[in-house]
């Protein structure tokens, strides 16, 4: 199949309506914590709170979303004010005395948990950068660039962060180059930083060289330091939706570079490999984990359907289609779009449920927790809306 101009216009209208009339209103303004700052995002299907703790990742993500809406959709005062609340909460409560950020804090900002990696920092970078663009606050912009520099150190200097494993079986994950590509892209496209282009090139090359395996048509989630496959359960475990998220980061870079042919090929190849590995041919939707050699996967949720991989695959397939015109990607986009909005979307209360069983039945009703909040879904709807607007 191919999408006609009318089809693409209908999709653009759909994503815009879902974002602004369904997804964002589920979260805001009620999630802004007027007492302590930041956001109260752990919510049940009807929007009621199930916990008032705060996940630092999602504080940054929500602040990014609100500032991005201000920058790219409409300069609404309530959006920039709400974004500022999240930025202030991050500065006031989410940095430890050693400069690293926490992962989980109480409502009033007391630390509960810290993790061994720096994703809280990357989400803070994109939040600060988007807010700095919205507000014109050069002080915040400089802090975003400084924190990006710390993220580069964390990503490149061995031993700077505590190790999760011993040195017996060294490994590295695709998550670090992936998240750093997107962080650099966001920084570059909001306030700018001369380091971004070079580092994006470096991290794409690392993914292409070490994680993309053409001989077995796969994108690995974890490899040995030299890029070889670690033939143990953890080393064999694939996350198709995560790899496809990496594919669209690379396709986005291809588009930024005036449709760079090599990057289009690389991103589409990653999408092709992991669609084949991840799409559930029996029930539809994206399976959460697979084994590279089709052996049993250790995690018990391996065949569940989580919300966020579907958001990433919706973006990747639409972006691949607009860059290549290949009807396969239009067909795949329609398949994942139709599945996701039929199974995850809550037509009564808005937003998406997060977790389904393999057959598409609801596993639980939470819309927000330590990992789910206003990011993957609104980012998908925002990105697809703007991508389709640019086709005019």
Feature tags:
isomerase, AGE/CE, 6-hairpin_glycosidase_sf, 3-stranded antiparallel sheet, mainly alpha, Glycosyltransferase, 13 helices, 2 domains, 6hp_glycosidase-like_sf, globular, 392 residues, isomerase activity
3D structure, described in words:
By secondary structure, this protein is mainly α. It folds into two domains: 250 residues, Alpha/alpha barrel (Glycosyltransferase), CATH 1.50.10.10; 130 residues, Glycosyltransferase. It is built from 13 helices and 14 strands. A hairpin with a 4-residue loop joins strand 7 and strand 8. The two termini are 21 Å apart. The model has no long low-confidence stretch (mean pLDDT 97).
How does the overall form come out from the CA principal axes? globular
Could you name the ranges where pLDDT drops below 50 across 5 or more consecutive residues?
A: none
Strand content: 5-15%
Mean pLDDT: 97
| Alpha-beta content class | mainly alpha
CATH architecture name of the largest domain: Alpha/alpha barrel
Count, helices: 13
Q: How many separate structural domains?
A: 2
Question: What is the share of helical residues?
Answer: 40-55%
What fold name goes in the CATH topology slot of the largest domain?
A: Glycosyltransferase
Largest beta-sheet details: 3 strands, antiparallel
Total DSSP E strands: 14
Organism: Mucilaginibacter rubeus
Pfam families: GlcNAc_2-epim (PF07221)
InterPro entries: 6-hairpin_glycosidase_sf, 6hp_glycosidase-like_sf, AGE/CE
Keywords: Isomerase
């Amino acid at each position: 199949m191919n999408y006609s101009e009318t089809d693409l216009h209908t999709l653009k209208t759909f994503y815009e309506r879902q974002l602004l009339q369904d997804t964002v209103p589920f979260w805001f303004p009620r999630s802004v914590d007027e007492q302590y700052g930041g956001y109260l995002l752990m919510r049940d299907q009807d929007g009621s709170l199930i916990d008032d703790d705060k996940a630092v990742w999602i504080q940054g993500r929500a602040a990014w979303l609100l500032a991005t809406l201000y920058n790219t959709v409409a300069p609404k005062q309530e959006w920039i004010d709400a974004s500022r609340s999240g930025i202030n909460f991050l500065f006031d409560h989410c940095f430890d005395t050693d400069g690293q950020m926490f992962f989980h804090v109480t409502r009033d900002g007391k630390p509960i948990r810290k993790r061994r990696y720096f994703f809280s920092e990357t989400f803070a970078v994109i939040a600060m950068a988007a807010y700095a663009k919205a507000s014109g606050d050069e002080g915040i912009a400089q802090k975003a660039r400084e924190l990006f520099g710390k993220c580069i150190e964390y990503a490149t200097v061995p031993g700077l962060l505590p190790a999760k494993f011993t040195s017996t079986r060294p490994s590295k994950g695709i998550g670090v180059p992936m998240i750093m590509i997107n962080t650099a892209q966001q920084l570059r496209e909001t306030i700018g930083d001369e380091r971004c282009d070079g580092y994006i090139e470096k991290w794409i090359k690392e993914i292409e060289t070490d994680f993309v395996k053409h001989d077995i048509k796969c994108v690995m989630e974890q490899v040995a330091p030299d890029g070889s496959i670690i033939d143990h359960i953890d080393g064999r475990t694939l996350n198709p939706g995560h790899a496809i998220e990496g594919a669209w980061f690379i396709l986005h870079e291809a588009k930024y570079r005036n449709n760079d042919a090599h990057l289009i090929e690389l991103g589409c190849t990653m999408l092709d490999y992991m669609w084949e590995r991840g799409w559930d041919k029996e029930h539809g939707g994206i399976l959460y984990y697979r084994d590279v050699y089709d052996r049993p996967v250790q995690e018990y949720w391996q065949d569940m359907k989580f919300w966020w991989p579907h958001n990433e695959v919706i973006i990747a397939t639409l972006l691949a289609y607009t860059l290549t015109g290949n009807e396969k990607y239009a067909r795949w986009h329609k398949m994942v779009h139709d599945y996701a909005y039929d199974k995850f979307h809550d037509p009564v209360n808005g937003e998406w449920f997060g977790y389904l069983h393999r057959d598409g039945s609801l596993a639980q009703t939470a819309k927000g927790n330590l990992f789910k909040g206003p990011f993957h879904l609104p980012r998908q709807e925002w990105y697809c809306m703007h991508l389709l607007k640019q086709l005019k």
